[in-house]
């Protein structure tokens, strides 16, 4: 028998394979960059993409920024300012990021430029240019306080990944969904989205959720939304402490789930339990394959929910899915009932 040729992959190959796990498509890069801006306490956040994000992605914020040394460290693998160790994770992280891999992985599969100036009164900022995972230059640069990240030619050096990209329209739809999720969750941040030079939406950053819904989904949908606001004492038993947000009149519905925007502890998630709870409340009021608009925020104690799921996936798992489903159903149902929007239905067990 001959030896199998088992050998170590070079660093570059490892990095690119790993990158594909985190950054699957332009929308995943947008998600990471938007999360970084929100974690940096931005009050303004501009996302501009070209060709669905395949040509370029630009995310600009007015957050706390980075010094030159921060910036040099930030693009390295597994570097984060957000957690110290496992204890912090187990206690339940509230920042959106914590893995310290986004900038590094995006940088290894694109041409990445970051300009940043900290909010500490620094005279100038720093521009770092990265290409395929290597720093090309780090130089002082004039820029406003905050951070601008530009990602060009995503996957230029990973043709296999590039091949799996869909049409511009599809890639942009994913980007739009990501930015919409964060705009709705952060009405106090002025969020704008521009595609190929055309503004898709912008929120004022000065309104509440209702105002953000108006900016993002338009007048017709905004007018059809009713509030949900239920605390623990009015929920059936289960892990959820409170449920709040907006859901639409049953008549205002769509054929896609895309308008179910759900959050656990301010993190945008998908969850079968939450979705089934919402759908259960509407019952037969919706036609088959019709979905309402819903923007719902659940507060759940850290230990009842696992946020440490795969970075690319937004599914969240609860220790008791059934209870969560009943709690969401009950909260949405009482909101609809209060507004006379449900035909009475037989009580369920
Ligand atoms: P993570 O978000 O998991 O910490 P990232 O690779 O996304 O990892 O970012 C690394 C670090 O770079 C962050 O922890 C943060 O300190 C810094 N950083 C990234 N983006 C920004 C930004 N827009 N503004 C300020 N700091 C940032
Ligand atoms: Mg991050």
Automatic annotation (TrEMBL):
Keywords: DNA damage, DNA repair, Endonuclease, Hydrolase, Nuclease. GO terms for cellular component: mismatch repair complex. It comes from the Archaea. Residues 213-337 form the DNA mismatch repair protein S5 domain. This is DNA mismatch repair protein MutL. One of its GO terms (biological process) is mismatch repair. This protein is involved in the repair of mismatches in DNA. It is required for dam-dependent methyl-directed DNA mismatch repair. May act as a 'molecular matchmaker', a protein that promotes the formation of a stable complex between two or more DNA-binding proteins in an ATP-dependent manner without itself being part of a final effector complex. GO terms for molecular function: ATP binding; ATP hydrolysis activity; ATP-dependent DNA damage sensor activity; endonuclease activity; mismatched DNA binding. Belongs to the DNA mismatch repair MutL/HexB family.
């Amino acid at each position: 028998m001959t030896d199998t040729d088992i050998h170590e992959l070079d660093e570059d190959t490892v990095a690119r394979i790993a990158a594909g796990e985190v950054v699957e498509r332009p929308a995943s890069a947008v998600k990471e960059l938007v999360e970084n801006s929100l974690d940096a306490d931005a009050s303004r956040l501009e996302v501009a993409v070209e060709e669905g994000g395949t040509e370029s992605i630009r995310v600009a914020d007015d957050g706390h920024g980075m010094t030159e040394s921060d910036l040099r460290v930030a693009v390295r693998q597994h570097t984060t300012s957000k957690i110290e160790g496992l204890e912090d994770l187990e206690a339940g992280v509230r920042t959106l990021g914590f893995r310290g891999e986004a900038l590094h992985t995006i940088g290894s599969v694109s041409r990445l430029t970051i300009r940043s100036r900290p909010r500490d009164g620094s005279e100038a900022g720093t521009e770092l240019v990265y290409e395929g995972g290597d720093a090309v230059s780090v130089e002082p640069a004039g820029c406003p306080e905050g951070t601008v990240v530009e990602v060009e030619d995503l996957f230029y050096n990973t043709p296999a990944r590039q091949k799996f990209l869909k049409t511009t329209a599809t890639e942009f739809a994913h980007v739009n969904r990501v930015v919409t999720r964060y705009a709705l969750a952060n009405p106090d941040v002025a969020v704008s989205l521009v595609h190929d030079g055309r503004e898709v939406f912008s929120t004022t950053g000065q309104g509440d959720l209702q105002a953000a819904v108006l900016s993002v989904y338009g007048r017709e949908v905004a007018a059809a939304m009713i509030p949900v606001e239920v605390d623990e004492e009015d929920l059936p038993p289960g892990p959820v402490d409170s449920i709040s947000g907006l859901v639409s009149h049953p008549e205002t519905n769509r054929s896609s789930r895309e308008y179910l925007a759900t959050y656990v502890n301010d993190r945008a998630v998908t969850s079968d339990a939450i979705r089934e709870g919402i759908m259960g409340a509407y019952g037969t009021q919706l036609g088959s394959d019709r979905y309402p608009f819903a923007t719902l925020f659940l507060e759940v104690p850290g230990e009842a929910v696992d946020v440490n799921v795969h970075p690319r996936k937004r599914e969240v798992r609860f220790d008791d899915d059934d209870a969560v489903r009943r709690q969401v159903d009950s909260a949405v149902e009482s909101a609809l009932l209060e507004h006379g929007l449900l035909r009475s239905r037989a009580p369920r067990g």
